[in-house]
């Protein structure tokens, strides 16, 4: 996720391009797409695709038609058509891959629906756009104060100015429907611009704001993930994760999207496993499954009358017992199967060069009785001071 200007310096420290997401190569921005067709020439007689992908603040991307046949490359700042006035954005993709992206996002390439790209932004456009971007944090703070004064149950998470400074879009999250008509009147009077309120979900809020996840990396939704699939608690159950909301929830407060990444592999591995609800009937009693280990192919069973004593069985052994139960063949006990799975404990650490034990901090400290008795004797021998 680093461009050439963000590479490492001579002293090993990250140099940083200090462009705040406006790098010319667009390789350290949110939801960046690598143009692997950039070095390939078009067949003779074919015209290049006239639509380009343009990114605005954070992860908002839209497609525009290059009606003026401008020579554009990734990282160019351009002026685009808006509902009223014009907007300023950065080109993130050109060429045939734009057609693929439009098809993937189900955007029609008809002539009337796609807005136009006006021109490359002039220095005057860029300066005005930068001034508007600098005011966003202050306006977001003041708008939150107005919403609190009106006692509205909503959270304004982000503000995005249009490139010409005539309009601002306020993104907010709320549990229920909010009547913000008075809020719009107050903000329009205070800021002197047109106001648009847009409600987003909590996942979209995390995508726009970004952050660092519990894994130590940037959030997937703000860097590369573009579609939000539903995540259920069954995904955590299949992967044998503890149902702890503090560990399973992401920055958005919902279940982490990464719970779905390995779910298909777990489901495929569990196809060969007996059901955890299966009961094993033995002469010693009925046994229930307590735990499974998908990677080692092991299951832990315990008797109904002795739930604290677990017996390790392989999935083949469990299937063998279930097959015998179906034909009503007697099985003496689980112990005759579990004996084969007992392994000798291997020595992991051995002090061969005079090193300290790894568990030296686990032992309680011994009180030095000799030093205490010595102090007592010295106190007795010490003469008393005269009053």
Tell me the overall shape: extended
Domain count, please report it.
Answer: 4
Taking all Cα atoms into account, the compactness measure Rg is 33 Å
Question: What is the H/E string?
Answer: EEEEHEHEEHEHHHHHEEEEHHH
Q: Largest beta sheet, briefly?
A: 5 strands, antiparallel
Termini separation (Å)? 79 Å
Quaternary structure state of the chains depicted: single chain
Mean pLDDT: 82
Q: Order the strands across the largest sheet as they lie in space.
A: 2-1-4-3-5
Strands, total number:
12
Annotation field: number of helices: 11
* Portion in strands: 15-25%
The helix content, as a percent range, equals 25-40%
Class by SSE composition? alpha+beta
* pLDDT < 50 runs, ≥5 residues: none
